[in-house]
Design a protein that fits this description.
The structure is a homotetramer. With about 350 residues, chain A is of the alpha/beta class. Chain A contains nine helices and 15 strands. Chain A folds into two domains: about 140 residues, 3-Layer(aba) Sandwich (Rossmann fold); about 180 residues, Dihydrodipicolinate Reductase, domain 2 (2-Layer Sandwich). Strand 14 of chain A pairs antiparallel with strand 14 of chain C. Chains A, B, C, D: GO terms for molecular function: nucleotide binding.
Chain lengths: ~350, ~350, ~350, ~350
């Protein structure tokens, strides 16, 4: 296989991780990095003397040596950069959230499709051992029918000025759910509040409705005294607790639940039984998520595979972020996901 | 002061606790207990030979020796029993939720007012050391302006057939909030789901809106693999974590938060600073809540005081339960609390 | 089977639990209780009108209706009471520690043996679901060779005036070890300290030496700011954590450990490999320990079985308590268990 | 002040941290690094092109540009390297444990004293915010009289071939105690066990005796299923819990304890009262320990100050390690620290 040459746009918070990952995994090398900041580019040079640097991202798109572009810039710039890269014939890996609107996401998907290029969204959590184990437990029916997905992601975090807390934090949970759950939500109801005048909401609650009595709920908060990263997933056969702050036992599988017995004569009065059994915490794959993800991106390019977190996944997440923001403005009003402004 | 003679209606799950409490605290004695079950009444007699027993609650209302009635029966019977007791001139302590509708609650309040009788609702948590400490920290402005109140009350719990999980579990949080928070909510948005055909919702999420950017949220669930009883209360000066499962340090006060600085020219771009300081877990009053509550009920009767958890508090909680149930049916539609059917 | 009639001596802290247990389990009934305190005996009568009460334990021993005596008095009185009971032909269940010396324990064992009576020591923890599960995991070789047993039992506890903290707290761990571990210790080294002038040691550390490189260690402390009840058991195949304060997952089994590879040429430089796998928390039997124990005592009497926690087990524990106290006085000097003054 | 030029010997596990720290703090710069491995030296060069590298540590000692040497090599080499450095007139910072014997430590102390050079031992934990806070709480008498110091430092850790677990793990606790406690121990009793044939002990327990009824105990273990880093410090006024694995509240101060009342007539029967109050978790200094330590080393050189963790502190720790190892061989036999073979 040919080595895939990567250009990285943006060397702020996340960019250095992308550079390191593509530099380390087999099958790829980073050949150029662009950033507005001369200072940051100096860091690139001192650490990776062989990598070309530039303040102009267009230099990367124009570089015939480069096969793929990884974009790690603020979300408002994702669309223009990704579109230019695709139009220049480059495969694209773009930070989450994919774009600021589902319209933009659709255009990128179409562009990549037309040009037969890989378009992947950096939904990093999907590539962790914990989330992959949850996916496996759901996909193999070990959990049974899924009843609910409930996640809390709160701490005293950096207030963003350009996006509300949903776009900053819930995006993680939505990308995980998109991968783990067996179906997609049809509507969302969200509530939230801003505690700094003129600033976006810093606390928010989302309920997502699915067919088959599956319900999901997210609590995100930049203003909590304690850090919590905990997901509960309830099923008819098993229930899962996923605590990302646990150093080793992140996933716990409980053999707990209810058994429902109804008789034909009396469907309205079901007999609910309770079941409690062992708890089991499976060993998780320890490979760093970003490495797994980089390998996957390279492979999709080389073999023409569709990424797990492709443009469609990115679009589905953005569509929910949009709808949730709209619902939040209307204090919980139900927004159907197919009828959201996406459609336009 | 004269000893207050108590009659207890209902000797199922909670009744024995009421009997024990009124038997132990000074100023009261239990003179009679009624229950449908002969078996339960036999337990009363073996443990308290001096207490009269009867299968007919009306015997208690007719008994001139009895000053006050404590009602610990299913919620659907509260209204009739409490109304009869009041009409018979007895003071009343009634289990939570007070009634099945706010209309009923209003009638009881009016009846008690007309007859100048004490009407108290058994919002037990309000009388715990932990909740009283939270109340104190809020009332003395130690917490500053309140930003949010967030509570999780989940476990693998008994599925009820007659009420949804909100009426069973959220009633605790609503009674705590009614006591602790400085204002009352103006609207509610709730979502939830039933996972047993024909049965009420077993998982639910409530958002409560208040004036002044205060938001509250409750998560209640009968089908969780782990037991959680945790409340976060965020304020401008301090943030509180209240974990009812902690054996000793239930309340933790964090000197954490944000500081907001805006300039006249740029009100739209506030500067948010972050503050982290000591954590402090105050010693809590250890008296059993039910004892404190029993003493308070006796005192209100003897001195003509208004109970902390009076009929109005009971009504406010019932009104929210009604509105939340209505909102849940409409998948999160905002229900204003003043315009709820209560009004009728 | 005939019902076994029980007499209980001592109705202080533990006695009421014994009375309740023997009253509830099938096959036995409590016919009499003795205690020095008239007040306590009044409590017996109000709760159990059918039980005879007396201030003189000898009345129980002389009562031909009584088959077995349960002794729940201070340890200094165990020997005289148990001996009298045995001499009167009664089976005996005695609180832990069995006696104040191993000499006394031996006399009781001999007396019971001569008279063919059941002599059982109330090592309650042995009858809990958690300890029985540990026993099973060790006995079935699931844990492999046992490397160490480490227990911490500390909290702010009641200072005793007559016995040091080893006799009060370590007795629990020693009785658990006696049941769970596959062999018996040959020597003990203990250290400790008293922080109240003239009073026995309130903090102590015991190391127990076994054959085959098994080592055990206990930390007991009446003066700790937090309550800890945690045992680690390390084996060649699995490692166990037993946390008695966990509400449900008390036992956790870790598939962790080392693998040792040595070659004949280089036995002095072993290759140590590390293994980490799943963690598993088995569901535990929830029957109350004291009920299981009462049933076992009844069965031993009826069927002539030897109790799991027989007089020999009680003696082994007392022998270690003696030796540890002696070692503690000598600041850790090794005391061999066979040569301890027991021998006299 | 002149900039202090540092030479670092050893670029394995810890050396890179020393290089980074001295490169970052003001007042010092790293001018040369030595290591046996060409590969490691290449890493130095790629990261710090200005730093000279050599495979021969003697080049650093001979370099007139270098003021001070930091030694991060295996403990068996500390003595020779440190002695050569001192003899070459360089100030020395040496990894812990300082040397393999107290004899060696004494020689280094004497050499540094004769030449008026700074000799500091890298007891890193002493420079953490948590340990400094404990020191402050003890030094200001907030804790009152110290009753005990108890530490557990266990996990599934790397088995060492050249030193036992005491030299690897207990060295941390001993260096912390040397700084925090108000007095020095006079004797040690230690027990332990090896579970790999021919290898040093992998589990060990140390009791340290002090004057005034202070007792300390350490539990260190390379073969534990869970990671624990917890210290309890009991005093007459307050009790401290120090949990190094807590992300933020590492230090908790409990207003708990006993009060002792005795009368002249009855000194043998003291009245023990119990006190429980608030818990308080102070905010800790967040500066990285190694940075604080590097600044301190520079300052000691520039101002002729005596380091907090000077050669004498290193010697005291080594002396205890020696004595504990000796006691462990004798299964807990008490080894007095002044009479240890050190004296020879």
């Amino acid at each position: 296989m040919n080595t895939i040459n990567i250009g990285v746009v943006g060397y702020g918070y996340w960019g250095p991780n992308l550079v390191r990952s593509f530099a380390e995994v087999p099958g790829s090398q980073v050949v150029a990095v662009s950033d507005f900041s001369i200072e940051r580019l100096a860091k690139v040079q001192s650490r990776y003397p062989a990598i070309k640097v530039t303040t102009n991202a267009q230099d990367l798109f124009a570089d015939p040596e480069i096969d793929a572009i990884a974009i790690a810039t603020p979300v408002s710039t994702h669309f223009d950069l990704a579109l230019s890269a695709l139009q220049a014939g480059k495969h694209v890996l773009v930070e989450k959230p994919m774009t600021v609107s589902s319209e933009q996401a659709k255009i990128l998907i179409e562009e990549a499709k037309q040009r037969n290029l890989v378009l992947m969204v950096d939904h990093t959590f999907v590539y962790t051992g914990a989330v992959r184990k949850m996916h496996e437990l759901v996909a193999t029916k070990a959990v049974g029918d899924i009843y609910y997905y409930d996640s809390v992601r709160v701490n005293l975090g950096l207030f963003q000025h350009d996006v509300n807390v949903i776009w900053d934090l819930a995006v993680h949970d939505l990308s995980i759910m998109d991968y783990v759950l067996p179906s997609k939500p049809y509507a969302v109801s969200a509530t939230g509040m801003s505690h700094v005048p003129g600033e976006p909401e810093n606390i928010a609650y989302l309920t997502l409705f699915f067919e088959n009595n599956l319900i999901a709920h997210l609590h995100v908060n930049w203003l909590a005294p304690v850090k919590v990263r905990r997901t509960l997933l309830g099923g008819s056969q098993k229930m899962i607790s996923y605590d990302d702050l646990e150093p080793s036992e992140k996933i716990k599988v409980y053999d707990k639940g209810i058994t429902v017995n109804g008789s034909p004569e009396n469907v309205y009065q079901m007999l609910v039984g309770y079941r409690t059994g062992d708890m089991w915490s499976p060993k998780l794959e320890l490979t760093e998520a970003l490495q797994t993800e980089a390998v996957h991106f390279i492979q999709c390019i080389q073999q023409g595979d569709r990424p797990i977190t492709d443009g469609e996944a990115g679009l589905r997440v953005v569509r929910i972020l949009e709808a949730a923001t709209e619902s939040m403005k209307k204090q919980g009003a139900l927004i159907e996901l197919d009828k959201a402004k996406v459609a336009a």
